[in-house]
UniProtKB/TrEMBL annotation:
CDD domains attached to this UniProt entry: ThiL
Gene: thiL
Organism, as annotated: Cyclobacterium marinum (strain ATCC 25205 / DSM 745 / LMG 13164 / NCIMB 1802)
Positions annotated to bind Mg(2+) 5: D238
Protein name as catalogued: Thiamine-monophosphate kinase
Residues given in the record as substrate binding sites: H62, E288, W340
Biological processes per GO annotation: thiamine biosynthetic process; thiamine diphosphate biosynthetic process
UniProt pathway: Cofactor biosynthesis; thiamine diphosphate biosynthesis; thiamine diphosphate from thiamine phosphate: step 1/1
């Protein structure tokens, strides 16, 4: 390696880094059906396939223990993995749990963390089938791998979106990001004056969305019952714009979404305004909502038309038409994706 050359990871960004790592990784087994580049890998033979996904959560990067209860953290660590399984239209079945602990954690603390993990395992009906524990010098590390089942014909890849498909989003967006801003603000208030108690009661919904997200397995089970397979799907972990970019890139298409169709909760909207943030920017670029973003063929619209928690936010266009947000005044604004900026 050229000793003079040093490229900062921040120059590549998250997606550039993943592209670089995966560039010359080839798969050699016929059972490796889908490798890097979707919410989960797909493996197996025949019609009954498995999906596999891993997520890493680091103290100080993904969570702050000064305002995150350990039980919630344990639940969230499982939920974010289940969310990636859901994004493949698969049903989660097992998880393995890897934990790195520093000496400041007591046995009671580990018990509390595992209570959350076990609660999530029950909630999503997954078995905890293994893992590893080790000591850590850099705070708490949680790495969970989730496995799920799916029929070959039911998989929703990011790459299946077709021109004129309808773009759908579940739930509401931006809440987890705004919730995090409130939690961080109250932490600063507390640090500067420990006699001040955090004022969180005013914001139960958005702080809950940050601290205890729920993967949308309810929607996946409904799809199964109604025999609907989204043409493409991804979960919203990094923000709507970023997820739309992934679908566009994988499917070789463009998108048009409409500002007045974007699902935003009232508390999210009001708190964004209170914090001098643009609510739409929070919906587009705020992460960690763990809702599902998917596309459907227009023929399937009737099946979802009356669903109370699915929103039709736009449609898929030709690649050359680009990626646009149409504002309430009818102006088309080009979408920009950011991804996370931890580096
Ligand atoms: Mg994902």
């Amino acid at each position: 390696m050229d000793k003079e050359k040093r490229t900062e990871i921040s120059n590549l960004g998250e997606f550039g880094l993943i592209d670089m790592i995966s560039e010359d990784i080839k798969t050699n087994h016929s059972s490796s059906i889908k490798g890097i580049g979707d919410d989960a890998a797909v493996i197996g033979e025949g019609d009954d396939l498995r999906v596999v996904t891993t997520d890493l959560l680091l103290e100080g990067v993904h969570f702050d223990l000064s305002f995150t209860p350990l039980k919630h953290l344990g639940f969230k660590a499982v939920a974010v993995n289940v969310s990636d399984v859901a994004a493949m239209n698969a049903i989660p079945t097992q998880v393995t749990v890897g934990i790195g602990l520093s000496s400041r954690f007591s046995v009671e603390a580990v018990k509390e963390l595992y209570e959350g993990i076990k609660l999530a395992a029950t909630h999503y009906n997954v078995d905890i089938v293994g893992g590893d524990t080790t000591s850590s010098r850099a705070g708490l590390v949680i790495s969970i791998t989730a496995i799920g089942e799916v029929k070959k014909s039911a998989i929703s890849y990011r790459s299946g979106a077709k021109v004129n498909d309808i773009i759908c989003a579940t739930g509401d967006l931006g809440a987890a990001f705004i919730g995090l801003q409130i939690l961080e603000r109250e932490k600063q208030v507390f640090l500067s004056n420990p006699n001040m108690q955090p004022d969180l009661e005013k914001y139960p919904y958005i702080t809950g969305r940050q601290l205890k997200p729920d993967a949308r397995m309810d929607i996946i089970h409904e799809f199964k019952e109604m025999g609907l397979v989204p043409t493409s799907m991804i979960d919203v972990s990094d923000g709507l714009a970023s997820e739309l970019f992934h679908i566009c890139k994988a499917s070789d298409v463009g998108v048009a979404i409409y500002e007045d169709k974007l699902p935003i909760d009232k508390q999210t909207f009001d708190t964004a305004v209170e914090l001098n943030l643009d609510p739409i920017t929070c919906v587009l670029n705020g992460g960690e909502d763990y809702e599902l973003l998917f596309t459907i063929n227009q023929d399937d619209f009737k099946k979802l038309e009356k669903h109370p928690d699915i929103h039709f936010i736009g449609h898929v266009t030709e690649k050359d038409s680009g990626k646009y947000l149409v504002t309430k005044s009818g102006t088309a604004v080009e979408l920009k994706a950011q991804g996370w900026v931890h580096f």
